[in-house]
Amino acid sequence: MRRFSNYACSTAHLPLAEREAIDLLIRTATQRQGRIVIEHPSLSIEAHQYGFAVHLGLFDDLSDRPDDISPELWTLMNHARRMGANWLWFDRDERPSPAFPVFPAVDGEGTGATAQDDTAAVLPPPGTITQCCRSCGGSRVMRDAWAHWDESAQGWTLGAVFDAAYCEDCEADALLVERPVDTKGTAV
Ligand SMILES: [Zn+2]
């Protein structure tokens, strides 16, 4: 026996076209001796109830990305492989990671919320704070910051955050204040 590792990932990290193409392959998959065969030209894919899993064994034979795998998927697969996974498990209920880009999704996908726990998922944990504009009280505020390139995550990672702030509602530089958030998710 051998133990396999799975790396779970939100389907929202897959470009929409590729996600739809794989879903179409799953919908139109044929059966061979009762087993579902998903005919992707490069990938070994297994469908499951909340998405699908991609086998990472192709790195044994390939070092360059085949044309039928998007750079985004290739990056995720490489990352999972480096974490020691044998399978990259795409799950529409998995929360997206801030380390990877997210692509616009259909209802609820990629938010980590399901139809049953919609309300529970959006409630902030106790002690959650928000940042507000001192003039108007709005929370559409931002700070100056710089980012550095993270080669392993293949994305920009937040570095220092500077004091300068801006309020989108005031359309002006702003001073920020911290406010606690109540259990309904609104600043108090
Ligand atoms: Zn403001």
From TrEMBL:
DUF5983 domain ranges (all copies): 8-104
Superkingdom per UniProt: Bacteria
Designated name of the protein: DUF5983 domain-containing protein
Upper lineage: Bacteria, Pseudomonadati, Pseudomonadota, Alphaproteobacteria, Sphingomonadales
